[in-house]
Amino acid sequence: MIAPEPRTTMEGDQRRDREGNPLWITGLSIRQAEGRRTDVVHVVTSGQPQGLAEGSEVRVTNLWANEWAVDGRTGTTYRADAITPVSASGSGSASASTAAAAGPRGKSAGGDS
Hints:
- There is one protein chain.
- The C terminus is likely disordered.
- This protein has one domain: CATH 2.40.50.140.
- The longest helix is centred in the last third of the chain and has 5 residues.
- Helices cover 4% and strands 42% of the residues.
- By secondary structure, it is mainly beta.
- The strands form two sheets. The protein has a five-stranded mixed β-sheet with strand order 1-2-3-6-5, with no helix packed on it. It has a three-stranded antiparallel β-sheet with strand order 7-4-8.
- The chain starts with a strand and ends with a strand.
């Protein structure tokens, strides 16, 4: 995991959501269920995630992806309601397939990353 940092405009101002809350971006390393391949995705949240430490296991709540295309460029933006630390005394690790299970409109059921 890469520590949260403000999501900024080209001018360096912090971006805000429709309600005026500041947006934060956090890099998450995701390991696929089978094999050793990992990917890094940058997830945007409204408000700064608290209590996260680089390299720690986290729980992502209501993760969803939005594919976009602008002026011949394409990409995927990831958003989540929250990113929280997983406590050492938690109920165990959810499987990667649970974390990646898509629900309605691309929303994830959440899970560990």
